[in-house]
Design brief:
By secondary structure, the chain is an alpha+beta fold. It has 3 domains: 2-88, Beta Barrel (OB fold (Dihydrolipoamide Acetyltransferase, E2P)); 117-208, E3-binding domain (Dihydrolipoamide Transferase), CATH 4.10.320.10; 244-458, Chloramphenicol acetyltransferase-like domain (Chloramphenicol Acetyltransferase), CATH 3.30.559. Helices cover 28% and strands 24% of the residues. It has 12 helices and 22 strands. The protein has helices at 97-115, 119-122, 126-131, 139-142, 152-156, 164-172, 191-198, 241-253, 268-283, 290-304, 350-365, 439-454, and strands at residues 2-6, 16-22, 29-30, 35-40, 45-49, 54-59, 66-68, 72-77, 86-88, 226-229, 232-235, 258-266, 310-313, 318-321, 327-329, 331-333, 336-338, 341-342, 379-383, 402-406, 410-416, 419-433. Strands 12, 15, 18, 19, 20, 21 and 22 form a 7-stranded mixed β-sheet that branches. Strands 3-6-8-1-9 form a 5-stranded mixed β-sheet, with no helix packed on it. The protein has a 4-stranded antiparallel β-sheet with strand order 5-4-2-7, with no helix packed on it. The radius of gyration is 28 Å and the shape is globular.
Length: 463
Amino acid sequence: MTIEYKLPNLGEDIETGDVIGVFVSVGDRVSVDQPLLELETDKAAIEIPAPSDGIIKEVHVSEGDTIKVGQILVTIDDGKGKGKKTKVEDVPEIKTQEQEVEEIAEKEVKKEIDEDPEPEEAELSPDDIEKDEEPKADLGEEKQTPDTPETPESKSDIPPPASPSVRRLARELDVDIDSVEGSGPGGRILEDDVRNFTQDKKPKTPEKKIAPEGQQNKSSETAGKADSDKWGSTERTPMSKVRRLTAERLTEAWTAPHVTQFDKADITDLEKLRKEFGKTVSDAGGKLTMTSILLKVIASALKAFPQFNASVDMENGEIIYKKYYNIGVAVDTDRGLLVPVIKDADKKNITELSVELTELSQKARNKKISVDELQGGTFTISNLGGIGGTYFSPVLNAPEVAILGISRAEIKPVYKDGGFLPRLMLPLSLSYDHRLIDGADGIRFLRWVIDALEEPFKLPLQG
């Protein structure tokens, strides 16, 4: 029996992904849970496993394709005898409200196409129409006006005919699809209609056309090719999903008024303890770093300063205080910045935090991290000390209201006990949302963290 394996639901708000690796080909024998391909989504790179044992009869996607949930990936012969093709998905197919609306729209379009006196247009399928690069601009005008004027009530009962992909595009571009005039047969709304609506109905350009399902979307026909401007040669390359998501999130975060507070912590004594207990943590499978120590310190600080473990709901004029303490740690990968989240950091000791941080960092760099492991953070730590630098202004990780930046510790002469002594000083940068956190609270929080670092006895290794 052959199985058509479709891309399953990947998680909340994830509808598409880019194929960055295909591990099987026609004729290969696979076993259940064996990786078939690797997919990069807006949140992480994940492997798609085989649903059963069998032989690959057909591969429907290629490296570089942009695919969506529900699209067929491979056809597998499970060797269980002849039978009808079955579609494998993680969950049973349930009609959503959007699917029901689409069915109504399809029936309406079919009815109007059947009544259309133009036989050539009646023969075109919706897929053929969407692939047409130059739909007739006057099709909407050729539509016959009913003898009885249409009332607003009757018009509102019939949703505008448009495919799910067109509706999704309208949502992404913040377009009211009810206001868009369709240029397809029967008034069907095409993707170009939505784009032209956002450009005041300027003529569409070929560069903006989105590739059909199963093919890679390109930002322009020159993507990846050499180009030039008046100063010299240039090259256009499409943004990766991780980079695009980073840009979108930072743009969202930048709408909040940022303040960054700088200070230094004397970690001379703490560094001695870190080296002393480093082997104990290493034997447990982790690495005792300043970041893992700060995870424990920050978890305690957030309890003392709850406004730092919150988010702002401006629409409803409310502050949302989180009663859980999930701390994200920025990790530099070859695909961009990822932020794995340590869940319930307040309930774990430094050894446990060190082991979990080591595991999550490796998974992020090896493209093994799951979407759930990148979500749910209430505060973020960004450590650039391994690369260098002194201070920097970290940008909030929305909807969080605070983030702590760590730079490289250096030996500095510090006046102490009547003389200058060499001390290991750690630069810290605390950025926070000024809508919720005042400057006085900002420095109190940072000084609380510094005091905890400078008095290591407050940080028992196993507590």
